[in-house]
TrEMBL record:
InterPro entries cross-referenced by the UniProt entry: FAD/NAD-bd_sf, Glucose_Oxidase_domain_2, GMC_OxRdtase, GMC_OxRdtase_N, GMC_OxRtase_C
Superkingdom to which the source organism belongs: Eukaryota
Keywords: FAD, Flavoprotein, Oxidoreductase, Signal
A Pfam short name: GMC_oxred_N
GO molecular function, one term: oxidoreductase activity, acting on CH-OH group of donors
Cofactor: FAD
Name of this protein: GMC oxidoreductase
BP-aspect Gene Ontology terms: secondary metabolite biosynthetic process
SUPFAM superfamilies tied to this protein: FAD-linked reductases, C-terminal domain, FAD/NAD(P)-binding domain
Amino acid sequence: INDSYDYVIVGGGTAGLTVGDRLSESGKYSVLVIEYGYLEPDGQRPGTLYNITSAPVSGLNNKTFPVSIGCVVGGSSAVNGMVFQRGNAKDYDVWGELGGGNPRVSWSWVDMLMYFKKSIQMTAPKPETAAFDLRYDTRYWGRNFTTNHTIFATFGNVINPKTHPFYEAAKRLPGMKVSPDAGSGQLGLQYYQTSTSPYTGARSYSRTGHWDGLNRANYHLLAATRVSKVIFDRDRAAGVQIYPRGEKARNTVIRAKKEVILAAGAIHTPQILQLSGIGPADLLKRAGVPVKVDLPGVGYNFQDHTFIPAVAFSWSTSPPIPAHLNTSVVDDKLGRTSLGLSVELPVVSPRSFKRIASQYESQDPAAYLPKGTDKTVVRGYRKQQQIYAREMRAREFSFLRATLSGEPSFVPIVIHPVSRGTVLIDPAAGSDIEVEPIVDYRAASNPTDVDVAVEEIKFLRRLMTSGDLARYNATELAPGPGYESDEALAAWVRANTIPSVYHPVGTAAKMPREWGGVVAEDLLVYGVRGLSVVDASIMPTIVAGTTSMTVYAVAEKAADLIRLRAGRDI
Ligand SMILES: Cc1cc2nc3c(=O)[nH]c(=O)nc-3n(C[C@H](O)[C@H](O)[C@H](O)COP(=O)(O)OP(=O)(O)OC[C@H]3O[C@@H](n4cnc5c(N)ncnc54)[C@H](O)[C@@H]3O)c2cc1C
């Protein structure tokens, strides 16, 4: 390990290793990735997570919840569920809208699609799945198999035939579409991939795609090492202060000649920024951290998907499976391909979507944000509110995601929540990086999210009791009898919602500074030079799918932006 590098990357997770690989591949720049987790000899150890408990969530009956994030080389991509989805095309167009109009950089769907194709190689489904209406289109994917140094999206070899009756029934619900490809950015029914190597059947993640086997003299990884803060020469990020895991007294500094890149994820990136003096000034003062830049958005705009673990039914007789699909279901190394739904609000709730949109639109934007939220952050939220209200009435923005497992039980996800939480250092802990930040999901703090969840339950009831599936006389087990009124359902939602699908995003948002943004369109942090953020924190709004695929694409795009400015003084 050297004393200085061109690029110092904080966090060897999903984004960190992707950027590290790209910046080092030409051989021109030296790159160091610093990761708190261990480089596990077996490549992964599921369950290697930070030990964080959330603040009590007042909208969910004051319960606390575990905050799961990977703590290992590979970060959350080493421990995640490997469900590999993108958001809606509209999600990225909204990112463009929330960019404030920088003519040189665009984050809209067409631009991001280029990076989805660069970052992920898709392997087509096997002939065994041909009997199903599995739609895919290679135009949405990278198809470069000349190297193992990539991330794979792979279909399983088999499909559970029990999904078929659900597919047929859901397809016939009014307004429902079938997506041409799970990566097309379009809504509807879709069979989707997992992040699995087609060759080995093992997890494909940032370590296998962007570290293992590269052996470049200019690409170093320092594992089991904590970055405690960014250090500055006047207004330029000059490097980071680090210490070996568990040995806080052994501080040293590694210098960055070109840029410090924060890729510590949506929980720890805002923590490091705040402990480096970049954040809401009043919070930093209370914690005794000298203020470098008063940037009120750091740690605000926190979003995650919320879900209900079971909206459950039982059959009196299960739907029959057509003989041609009823082949023996043998799980092989690639596992099964799953079937998902991505549904817009007018289809989830033809009766109530206009009311929900109008009520949401007319809210005072500060009403459900944390007390004392800075006016710039409120302004940014107002923008998001206008966009979300518009999209609640439109057909390109999903509000429900669920997997159709083949069993009469569902896990509905509020995929575009409007509540916003915070990730803030604990002022009582001062500048101690070992004390985890206070993670306040604030899920369901905005009643609109509860309204949407109630409509999701009614949608699933319609799927099970009308149309194709009506004849199987499903009995509802959860919520169950007695939950008819919206009020009763809302109370059930608050009692049963989990505030995180492990998709934390948004805490260092890419938005204009006057809208509470933390990074500009080029991902450079406002108010200093030579410091950028490249991870899930930069998403201004959460996407309608699992988040890792979007993080890979963000990292690929960021690497191009960073290389572009490498010759300039920033
Ligand atoms: C349990 C779980 C299940 C999930 N399931 C799915 C799924 O099925 N599909 C999907 O697409 N997504 C899933 N996700 C989410 C997805 O994996 C994440 O959104 C994505 O990986 C985040 O990438 P990132 O680069 O922002 O952060 P991470 O990959 O979390 O990387 C951040 C890294 O920074 C390191 N770090 C933090 N602080 C410091 C410090 N001070 N010093 C040094 N290093 C530090 C961390 O140890 C970590 O390795 C899941 C996540 C979890 C945790």
